[in-house]
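Subject: Protein record for review, amino acid sequence with backbone structure tokens
Concerning: The relation between a protein's sequence and the shape of its backbone.
How to read it: Take the token row as a discrete description of the fold.
Enclosed: The protein record, placed directly beneath this head.
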Amino acid sequence: MTPPQPIYVLYRPLPATLLALVLAVAGSLAGLAMGVAAAAAWGQPDPGPGVWDTANAATLTGHVAAHPYPMLLPHDGSAGVLLVGVGKVGPPGAVLALVGHGARVTGYPLERGGLKMLEVQEATADHWPSPAPGPAVGLGVHAIATEILDSKCYLGAMKPGHGPGHKACAILCIAGGIPPMIAWTDAAGRTHHALVTGPDGGPMPEAWRPRVADRVVVRGRLTSRDGWLWMAADAPDP
């Protein structure tokens, strides 16, 4: 005779055999959930070391240039600091009105790998003498396998600020006036960064925008100026 199977009645304790089954299934599901979560976390791109200090505003002084992206050239001769606005836009009109003049600029700093940017909150004229134009050092023509990034997110506003999942944001940022840049690693394992311009040194052509955040080959002349590398990119491949 087959023994009766245990059943569960709502108002009575769960039979021992059913309790063991429930605990075993619950434990397996919990382990599966943790495994899936760990795999998802492991598969996320490296957020990078970028820093965006929104708690401590910084005030910098220097000369405002726009060649072709707005940048403050500090009076102490250190590397230029990119200037952007709040959100996915370039710097406010108060900055653009000071191009070619000395200025005192206050904002929230972003930094990654020694590259600096300031999200401008306020800019006023100051009487710093205009520095001599920094020499542009030619580094030859290169073809670099890389990804076109929006510099604000990459330098610390987003983590990670790169990869396919960041494509829509990067396109909006660049269209709004955030300088585009590329990053790559050489054979010695050193990471390099360059701001991307057009072949004539002007802003990056719109033809590159659909390729932002994709793996591409950027070809053009590489130069060094004002503490930054600059890539004068040719038109993208069809």
